[in-house]
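Cont'd.
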Amino acid sequence: MAIPILYPLTLGAFLFGVGLYGALTKTNAIRILMSVELMLNAVNINLVTFSRYITPNNYRGQILTVFVMTVAAAEAAVGLAIILVLGRNRNVVDIDKITLLKG
Amino acid sequence: MSFDYTLLLPELILTALALVVLVIDLSLAPGKKQSLTWITFAGILVAMAGIWPATQTSASQTLSGMVSSDGFSIFFKVLFLTVAALITLASGPYLQQKRLPVGEFYILLLSATLGMMFMSGSRDLITIYLGLELASITSYILAGLLREDPKSNEAAIKYFLNGAMASAVLLFGLSLVYGLTGETHLDIIGKVLNGDISHWPIVGVALVFLVAGFGFKMAAAPFHLWTPDAYEGAPTLVTAFFAVGPKAGAMAAVLRAFTIGFAASSGRWTELFAILAVVSMFFGNLTALWQTNVKRMMAYSSIAHIGYLLVGVTVATTVPGVASVMFYLLAYAVMTLGAFAVILAVDAFGPGDQVGNYAGLATRSPLLAWGLTLFFVSMIGIPPTGGFMGKFYLFSAAVQNGYVWLAVVMAINSAISVGYYYGIVKEMFVGKPLETTSVKAPAGVTAVVAITMVVTLMLGLYASPFLNWATAAAALPRFF
Amino acid sequence: MSLPLLSLFILIPLVGSLVTVFLPKNSVSTIKAWSTVITGLTLVVAVVSMFQYGGAPVDANGMKFAESYNWIPHFSVRYYLGVDGFSYPMVLLTALVTFLATLASYSAVHERHKEYYALLLLLEVGMMGVFASLDYVLFYVFWEIVLLPMYFLIAIWGGARREYASIKFFIYTLVGSVIMLVGILALYFGTGAQTFGIMEIAKLVPAAQFAPATAMLIFLALYVGFAVKVPAFPFHTWLPDAHVEAPTPISMILAGVLLKMGTYALIRISATTLPEAARAFAPWLVAIALINIVYGALAAMAQKDFKKMVAYSSINHMGYFLLGLAAGTPEALNGALFVMISHGLISALFFFAVGMTYERTHTRDMAKLGGLFLTVPVIATFTAFTAFANLGLPGLSGFIGEFFVLLGSFPAFRWLILIATVGLVITAAFHLIMMRKVLQGEAMTEWKGLKDITGREVLILAPLVVLIVALGVYPGPLFAVFNPAVQSLSKLITLAGGM
Amino acid sequence: MIQFTWLVAVLPIISYLLIVALERRLGDKTAYFGIAALLAAFVLSAGIFVEVLNGATYHKEFTWVISGTRAIPLGIQLDHLSATLLAAVTLVSSMIHIYSLGYMHGDKRIPRYYAVLSLFTAGMLGLVIADNYFILLVSWEIMGLCSYLLIGHWYEQKGPQEASMKAFLTTRVGDVALMVGIWLFFAYTGSLKFGEIGEMIKAGHVPATAALVGSLLIFGGAVGKSAQFPLHVWLPDAMAGPTPASALIHAATMVAAGVYLVARSFPIFSAAPPQALLVVAIIGGFTSIFAASIATVMTDIKKVLAYSTVSQLGYMVLALGAGSVVAGTFHLTTHAFFKALLFLVSGSVIHAVHSQEMHEMGGLRKKMPITFWAWTIGTLALAGVPPFAGFFSKDEVLLAAANLPARLTEQGLGHLAWIGNLVFFFGLATAFLTAYYMTRATILTFFGQPRDHHKYDHAHESPGVMAWPLIVLSVPAALVGFAGTTWFGEHGNWWASFIGEQALEWGAAEPHHIGWVMPLAIASALLGILVGYLLYGVAGVKTRQNAITALRPLYTLLKNKYYVDELYMGTVVAATLAFSRVVGWVDQNVVDRIVNWVGAAGEWFADVAGATDRYVVDGAVNGTAAAAMSAGKGLRRLQTGYVQSYMLTMAAMVVVGIILFQVIGG
């Protein structure tokens, strides 16, 4: 237990913040997708940290991490596909140009 | 722990069905896929029959206690399967008309339903998350199923990006809960939290993250902003599904998670849901008044209905609270599907999806017009319909628990909602149609309208069995 | 086991309505005949029930013809029907007016017959249910059932501004009724009742010992719902619009029966269940009643539209009911109930008379009408008769109600009722002005050659005229029906610190 | 026969129904139903009267309604007073029915006329036999309705339209007062019966003030119906109706109903504080001189009679106010005959010359001898020349008035005795004026040279159907007065003994004989005739015009009827109409708008919400973002991203939620 629990948790929070920032500021859909993945990874860090520090004999947190990674991959696949179709149809990847639907 | 497959029979059947459809789809030539509709429909009925064994045993759990089969989950499974069945029933000619990929549609629909069914049965954060994501990811694809339609693309990307972030937010909340309690199983979380720990500020933070995440999935204001765009852009049939399925799934997860996992902190989240309820009702109803696109209007209407449901969630610490939400979900599902069946008919086989397109529908197609009127009446909450019974139940649950003000807000909102439903009713009955040919809805759609009409009335006039069912199912079992 | 009479009142039109839906759209005469038979059958049952009413046994709540079955045990809601002196005359009135309105529809409706008659029958279901049900939820269900057909009947078959009028009616009454629902639930949970029975909850209220403020809040919630229907000032503005736009038979029902739902509920629920709050509210009620009377009369006087004038006079008349209710003496309550019945007959007649004129001239502008005594003498004479009945001419039923209300109100309010008497004079004035404009004068060339009354129209008029005269001369039998219920209510009010 | 009292009132109703039912088939012939019914009623009444003379009385009641624990009975009764009036009314009415056959000949609405006339009579008869205020009120209003219909008989014309409305509304004001009075007494006594209420007042069940106010309210009804000041305005206008109807309504019956009401209610008046009757006397006295003074300048023959009626009714009211039921009812009876006669005569004249203006008549005496003589008898009776009917009754009235000061002193109102004297003076002056204007009318109509030769040439004696009723009515007009002489009966005179017994029970006063009253009355009547003769029989037009010029202000005032109509039009009527317009406007533009404002507010809120969704939420999001990203470079780009706005909202809401939680109570 050389590293205090606060360190990895701070890292997780920081990563979540960076991901959020990216998701909110980037206009390129792919970058936003990547930022969201960053947020998920922040959660993963949290989960693993908690698992290791709080319940060392219980792997539920790590199990969840595995699932999150899997789901994130699926999500990314679907997301990229959607962005691809969009790009093919309208030749844009900037989401601030996608405003047909509003009001 | 053994794996009791009888408890997961419907899920297993549904999974198998999805695979069967996938295979058959591959073997059928394009344009000749009508048989898929009936295979799916029959399969769903079989899945529904598969629930039977579970009803014969007392509430029990499987998969190491991660999933349970109890009255609550059975209720929701029946609900989800019914929704899927009705959607399938209405789908055939629509898919053909819009040139949607038939096989994919059914597979996605079945997968989403599967995800929702898991959500309702989950007793563990892990399975809740998995079920949620299964439902969500398939939904993103469904929203963008009209690949050539830029609006559909847009709906998909908006839904996806928002949904992905919401998942992250939810997960962050889940990770905090796990960190606090060291557990992912709801019953144990509930036990651990039932101490001093429940007063820690960090619990509040975790709750906020969870409420935001679930709030997004059920489209409660102020997490609703994606909803209208996704509803408008998505194919109408998919919108119909969105309006019912994912919401009900999220609601099921919320009910179980919060009443079992966070029962001890109920003092904190009830107020949160009350705020969400009020904001949703007002936002949904007031904004709906300004819509000219019926699908978009229905999106706002659905936001308002989530507000009504959240009134019940606010008092979900009591059995009537949970039961009222469940009953209202039932009524809501039936009347919303009915309404969307009409909207679908008018959109795909009639003039379109703008309010003005409904002019003179009463003479062009009396059944559709009267049906839609009945569903709207039910949505407003006027007897003798299921919507009234449901609202009445929510109302009385709120008043009984001292939330008279919430009931009053609900009453006011019911009245406001007349404003936009009226616009369409007026068009249908008083408006002058551009053309007077009758609107011919396909048999499947007509059947859905007829079935939902009957059930809507039944829920209003002969509600006892359903009320008893909901109440019996609302008593969530605790295993630890 | 005798016939479930009250269920018949609800079932016959319900079945009739459902069957109408399946009749072929184009066989108009079949549809007309069928609806007439159905409403006629209801009326026959009503008449038959009159012979049994006197000797019928009463149940624990003093109700006759009672039927009680569990409906939604989950909410302890029952299908509980029963009538007493308050409701039984209203049931009869409903049967009569609906039948006559069906006859009147022949010439008033020219399109979409099937939908029209189906809705008309559904409307009767709702009205009958409201008056017969003794369970709050059942009552509420019927209350709302009335709303929908009414909305469509005005919105589809109404006049030029029908959309506005119908939605105004709808929103007003809906807002009122949802507030009322909150009040009902507050009563249910406040008393801890195990039932939604109207009479049962009333019996539990004293034991519940509501704080006066709470009781008043509940009372007000209920009051708003009922007052909109009555309509009591200031919730009355939907009425003139609705009446002007509604087709003649619907106006007949609207004024003849629908408004009485509000007054009936006030007396059956508000006054009976919360007598203390009713007492505390009485000063306000008096003020509202007097405003209704004077203001309604003055507003009627200012109208140029014939139908609108009649509509405002309804507001004026409902003021007498409110006054009688506020007074709470046996005479005043009997009078108030009598006002309900008599106004039901007279206003139905009046709107029909206006309708007869309108169907011939296609105008309701009193300035454009004139000399009808000479062009259509019989119609004009009936119109004059109605006007006199409406202005409270002694010897006709309108007078009895007003006379007894004020007779009974005097001990309670003393000189305040002088304000009401101002209304009496103004009421007379605007009726006379109307007659002068519309009936008297030289025959106008554009109305020459109009067809005078038809046999069917006489058939509609005759029962109303006969009843108006008969009740005006000998109101005894009707009082005998009212009186037992009135006595117990009056006792309640007296216990609540009444006069 | 007395047990068939109800039939007297029902007979005309039957004829009414028959006429209405058979109007289409029989047309004008339906008139005979009315005549037959009235003649039958007269015969029946006469029979009943004879039985009553022999001491029979009749009272029958039934339970009408039961309200609460209280049964309210209604009934009919027959005593001396009602039996007399029954006979008088049926006689006059049947004569008028017959007369109308001639007068209305050729009218296009004869069935309607006869139907209403019958119903009207039924109303009066019902009123007379009522034993309670309810039946009285019903009958009272039936008469009101019928008078409305009769005055408006020629409803094509503006005059009758307005007059009928005015009559109904003005009397309605009085009716309402009467009703309030009834309610008031019912509140204290729980009874609607005349006698019972009086007894209970006497027994002290009603506070003095309430009794006073209540009796004055009841008097208010009489003021309206009997056209007393200040509600007299409708009666002269009511002359727009057919003349025989005027004879019935405005002479013999309806206007008499008010007086009859006061007489019937006398137990109440006498039990109430004395001020009540004093007010009655003042109103009566004032009305009599007030109306008589107007009658002196009227040129329309019917208007003269109309104001004369108002004045004479004032007399009756004065007598009742002075406490003498005997005098009041006596004058009521005699007046019924001679005023009906006078009206019918005027009808006969109008029928002949087709004009009501006396200035277009003159010299008709020769052309219409029967008419003339009937008129003369009527005039002498009205003017109070002995031994015609009016003389005796007027004498009684003046005697009662002369007794008033003493009576007031007796009742402890000595300080108001001067009012008694004043009222007596009014009465005396009225006697003079009455004689004067009747002389004037007689001379203008029947004497002198014809002023309109065209009309004169066409004039002729009326047919028999009109003449015979005149003759029949002349008999009582001339002779009925003898009932008030000392030659019959014990109590000073027959009438006094016939009615007085009951009147004493009611608390009426028995006037003391005062020797100088009768000579004074005769003198003033003769003086009036003399002045009239001098002015119209002797002096020329020039003299009269000089007199008018000299008295210009007074003349104008009288000619305009003291501007009472104008006053009402300018105040009450105008105010009501204006107010109603205000209310109508307010209702449409304010009360209704309030609701629409609420609706508009709702829309506004919706707008706000919609805008909030579009701009504020997004905008705030943008704003929040701006604050959060002020250090960053991606600021501008963020503001355009809609999807990201949604996402940002979610994030912002989470932050807000957390802050809320920590602040409010984590």
